[in-house]
Amino acid sequence: MSVSIFWVIIAALVSLVLGYAIRKFIAEARITSAEEAAKRILAQAEKDAEAKRREAILEAKEEVHRLRDELDKESREWRNEQQWTERRLQQKEESLERKAEGLEKRENNLQKREEDVRRTHEQLSELIKQQTAELERISGLSSEEARKLLLSQIEEEIKHEAAILVREIEAQAKEEGEKRARDLISLAIQRCAADHVAESTVSVVELPDDEMKGRIIGREGRNIRALETLTGVDLIIDDTPEAVILSAFDPIRREVARVALERLVADGRIHPARIEEMVEKAQREVDNRIREAGEQAMFETNVHGLHPGLVKLLGRLSFRTSYGQNVLKHSIEVAHLAGVMAAELDLDVAVAKRAGLLHDIGKAVDHEVEGSHVQIGVDLLKKYREPQEVIDAMEAHHGDVEAKSVEAVLVTAADALSAARPGARRETLESYIKRLQKLEEIADSFAGVEKAFAIQAGREIRIMVRPDKIDDLAATRIARDIAKKVESELEYPGQIKVTVIRETRAVEYAR
């Protein structure tokens, strides 16, 4: 047993010794191989580094040669350019020297010629003096007198020829202008067809039965008094069956009263508190309708950017009539007509339409504010900062002031077209003619009046007086007296302008 263990130990020791020897041999072999590989790598690296160093040196030499060649080339080009510039400068210098010599020669020649001209001029002056003296001796006139006589004759001839030419041009321009104006106005009328509604100065409210009249009057008249006090409208309750008449100068108040009364009749509860409530609601409704009417007018005429205050005033015109013609519809028609004519004449369509729409804006408040609707309108447009050209066109539409633009003339023409077309205004021809005749008769009744003309549909009367009987002070006095007599004897809308003309004319005929 012990022998076996011994041999086992011996075998283990031999195995250990052999394993160590084998591992040492293998490790030494690997180390030797690694050292040899490292040497080879180092040698190869040294070779590569040497090759790269040589390549870098060659590339550097080549770059140096290339730069040297480029520098030599640039140097040659610069030297050539300098040589070319020097030659050009030398040529220019030679050219300038030659020109200077030529100029010097010319200057000498000019001096000689100037001296010759001076001597010739002196000789001519002397000859002219001799001839003038001889002419004065022969004609018996001095040179100044002869000059004035000749100029006067030439002036008379030129004036005569100019007058003939002006007359021919005026005749031709008048003929062409009238034809063009007729074509333009007919085209504008054909392209514009606005509807007009005639409104009366009273409103009628239908009642379900006559018993409702007593309820409207109320106990001891308290209901009708409350309604009249709140609306400012007179209620006329007479024998008209199933109807109440509302009468008021202000059409808006009348409309508020009509709406309120219709609602009260429909509701059936009629007492002062209910009347006050209905009047407030009617007022709000009418205000909304006024605003909507103004906005609709802006939309129809394509006029934008109006101040809300002007929009409301435009809407108020829908309740205003002039000779039965609705003023808002009339204003819309004037805007369309003025816009069409402005477009045909290549003018400012926007200004023409805007001025046409606003030309009667003063009529919205002319019963509340003192003055003519034109002046009121001018003040309103200035208040709401409308453009000056629109204000000028609006102010001139009745001829009170001179038109400052062609657009103003178009607005005046459009206003006359809209008001004068058949059916636009409800005034009968007979009453219209009678009013014009009465106006002229009043003017003719004053001493010194030669002739009176009612123009602009009776809005103005022009009176020609005899200059030998009426002086300037008397003309002012007679204008005031005629205006006062017209106010006392005639009924008319708006105002009438009285113009007295005193002039002296000298007329001659060339035969």
Can you list the strand order of the major beta sheet? 1-3-2
Give the termini distance in whole angstroms: 184 Å
Q: How many DSSP helices?
A: 14
Which structural class do you get from the secondary structure elements?
mainly alpha
Radius of gyration: 55 Å
How are helices and strands ordered from N to C?
HHEHHEEHHHEEHHHHHHEEHE
- Main beta-sheet strand count, sense and barrel state: 3 strands, antiparallel
What amount of the residues lies in strands? 5-15%
Number of separate strands: 8
Tell me which oligomeric state these chains represent. Answer: single chain
Written account of the structure:
- Helices cover 70% and strands 7% of the residues.
- Strands 1-3-2 form a three-stranded antiparallel sheet, covered by helices on one side. Strands 6-7-8 form a three-stranded mixed sheet, with helices on one face. A two-stranded antiparallel ribbon has the order 4-5.
- Residues 193-199 have low confidence and may be disordered.
- By secondary structure, the protein is mainly α.
- The termini are far apart.
- It is flat and about 170 Å long.
In short:
The protein is mainly alpha-helical and 511 residues long. It is 70% helix and 7% strand. The strands form 3 sheets. Strands 1-3-2 form a 3-stranded antiparallel beta sheet, with helices on one face.
